[in-house]
Amino acid sequence: MEVAENKEYKMTDLQISISHAITRAAHGLTLVEKRIVALFIAKFDNSKHRKALGRVIPVQDATIRITAAEYSETFDIPMNIAYRDLLKGTDKFFDRYWRVIQDTPKGKKEFKYNWLEGVVYHHGEGWVEATFGQKTIPHLVFSLKDQYTKYKLKSTVALTSGYSWRLWELMAQFANTKKPANEERLIRISLKDFRHAMDTPKSYKYSQIRQKVIEPAIEQILTQNEIDVTWRAIKKGRSVDSLEFKFKPCDQLNLF
Fold first, then answer.
1. HSE of 204 in the Cβ direction (CA atoms, 13 Å)?
2. In terms of C-beta distances under 8 Å and separation of at least 24 residues, what long-range contacts does 164-168 make, across chains too?
3. Do 110 and 166 lie in a common domain?
């Protein structure tokens, strides 16, 4: 979608497209920061940049602007809160990165990639511009459908916790498959990988993950997006080893 030329589009109708690697990575973002990054990604026209794969995209092409009015309208919050969120939310972006951990024969290998390389906030006009990091851009630009996770921005606007948003992204990865739309999707993920993707505190035991992360997130997804999610813990011996989630996408809601 060429958002710059189409004045009739609604922000909530825009689509988030991210690589599966980002979907399963630790994002290290607060809810406000997640909303801001989502708006930047939604306005990033990945079709325009597919031809740029394999080369550095010019800074001006990787720079996106969002306004307080767009933020306010998208997430249905007062303008004064939108101004505050954009200002405070972008203040610490240089310390924010998405993180991937890879197991190797010699131990864990950790990759950290900055979400953004530059941020400009215009205090007088209430807009913020950000430039995506060059290591992040390839994860927003795709030529094959099975390489990325996609969902409509409108499916997240009523989510009020980072955990529900992250679980929704994991679900979205499996919603866009070649299976019939009304066929049940199944996600099986190790508890270790789930902890990583959710950025749960290291001190959390499984019981706390269930009570503070999984159950509230599923309840919110059911309430806000009207998609029923069932889940179960899978044990290996006496300990929980992995988690299984099941859900059915709903074409009528057009959320993915």
1. 19
2. 164/216, 164/217, 164/220, 164/221, 165/31, 165/34, 166/27, 166/197, 166/198, 166/199, 166/217, 167/198, 167/214, 167/217, 167/218, 167/221, 167/245, 168/217, 168/221, 168/225
3. no
Residue 251: pLDDT band with limits 50, 70, 90: low
Q: What is the mean pLDDT of the chain?
A: 84
Are 21 and 142 in a shared domain? yes
Q: Quote the radius of gyration of the chain (alpha carbons, Å).
A: 18
Q: What is the pTM (predicted TM-score) of this model?
A: 0.84
Residue found by looking up tokens 């009570």 in the block: 211
Q: Does 82 share its domain with 115?
A: yes
Q: Are 229 and 184 in contact (CB under 8 A)?
A: no
User: How many independent structural domains does the chain possess?
Assistant: 2
What are 126-179's pLDDT values in tens digits? Answer: 999 988 888 888 888 765 556 788 888 999 998 999 999 999 999 988 876 666
Are 178 and 117 members of one domain?
no
Q: Which of 95, 121, 147 is the last residue of a domain?
A: 147
| CATH for 225 | 1.10.10.10
